[in-house]
Amino acid sequence: xxxxxxxxWSKNRSEGSNLLSFRWYAISGIGFLLxxxxxxxxxxxxxxEPGSGRVLDREGTRAQALSYAAEKWGIRPDAADxxxxxxxxxxxxxxxxxxxxLVQTYDKSWDARFPTDVYEVDIRTSGGGERLRLALHMQTGxxxxxxxxxxxxxxxxxxxxxxxxxxxxxxxxxxxxxxxxQTADALAWIGQLRYDESEWEPTGDAAPDGAVVLQSRKTxxxxxxxxxxxxxxxxxxxxxxxxxxxxxxxxxxxKIAAKLSIFGFxxxxxxxxxxxxxxxxxxxxxxxxxxxIFLSSAFFLLYAGFTFNLKAGFRAQVAAETGVTGDGGxxxxxxxNLVIYAAMALLTYFSAVGGDGLWRSMGYTLxxxxxxxxxxxxxxxxxxxxxxxxxxxLGAQSVILVVLQALLGSFYSSDASQSMYNMAYPWLxxxxxxxxxxxxxxxxxxxSIGMFRRWFVGGASRLLRREPSRxxxxxxxxxxxxxxxxxxxxxxxxxxxxxxxxxxxxLTLMGLLFGWFMLRFGLLTVVFAHVVLDSTLMGVxxxxxxxxxxxxxxxxxxxxxxxxxxxxxxxRSRFPGRSVARPL
Length: 584
Prior knowledge:
The chain is of the alpha+beta class. It is 56% helix and 11% strand. A nine-stranded antiparallel beta sheet has the order 1-2-3-4-9-8-7-6-5, sandwiched between helices. The chain has a two-stranded antiparallel sheet with strand order 10-11.
């Protein structure tokens, strides 16, 4: 594969030496097969597998909920002032089932009537006089839980609190005793609703709103237990009560993730922001302040559009933190996210200018300009190489995850705040891949690796009082990838993968590959490789999410990087002059 000091588009390399040999294509094919057999096929038993394999879309869910409201409560569709559909997920229970390898048992025996993932439909009548919250099974549309009351009424959640493990012992300790009369009324009422009363036993507790807590006599989910919260004519909800040891473990993991994110990512990124501004000014003679304007602007616009596309996801995030859905805090989250993305766009811009200047000052051109001879051909070649390298990266990621699962017992939870079912337009999901490919490669690869390499090689020069040898420079370049990759990895520890250091290890290793590919093939190639990798993962997600309308989007997601590359090549061939000489 060549030494790490052999950079593409450098003064020391010819264009022909930058082409892929047959070995690369063979490794790429192996990587793609590993991805299929280790990630795609084993995980095809997802949310969309049981039953018909179809998942209701948001409009179908809305119509079904209004039908229930009219049939059971006499609320006409024209009387509904607001109808909000939100995908909710009991992340604690999903994680417990994954950790204990109980997913298949749950799918066969529990999912049909007590799913961990539901559509919650919040119906409010004109004037706010009535509020109905319905939880519908995402495939069958069956009504599985509901609450009814005025706008001020609220339960902690239709399927248990969404924040960290649902219904922990702490919640149980806060319960009030249920009277004998309340318990009798609750059992009689669920009998009318075609529940088998003999399958439920009273816990003796009642929720703060007076709902009686009944526990299923049925076992089969490890130490987890299913509970109903019943208040005749007002509430019928459920929750999975998880073992104290598990809830304590998850709470500890969340604390660790928060600390790692702050000290491993947020603070270093703030420092990198300042350094990027300094290096952009210091090395401006080697580059142009026009570098990165287009890409950083595209990053912000794409992310802003995606943010508004995920308004229901923010409602799910509020539910995860408070247990109650609604618009409270949603607008605040939208604004906070837009401010964060604006700051990230600025960091991306200064990383582009500073990173390009750094590498050019060291004698390497990793990012050609629009007006450079052969720019259009280079973009086309970068697209092709990006697809080949993306398959290698997918295979490597698959192997890393399988090894970590075996060594660390890694498992997955859920995060409805980023769910496709909470997107107004799910086909916009691939925008995230472009946002990540643009920002992370400019920040974590072009600038960060360049900066650390400057420090390490410069430090060696001062220590040796001469320029280090090529081998020493290559070793120091490899060393420069480590902190850059680690900082990038720390930014992903908040994902629903446990233990939290799973992603830290995985992405540090992946970051080393991304960095080496950038040095070997150039910035544009690794940007396209990153976009293709994410677009492939998102395309598979769209093809398997159970929403028929997303099938076309999944194919487009995979093909879009090629379309964009061809479009850039065509534009470059049509407009090569100064009037459109804008760096991409």
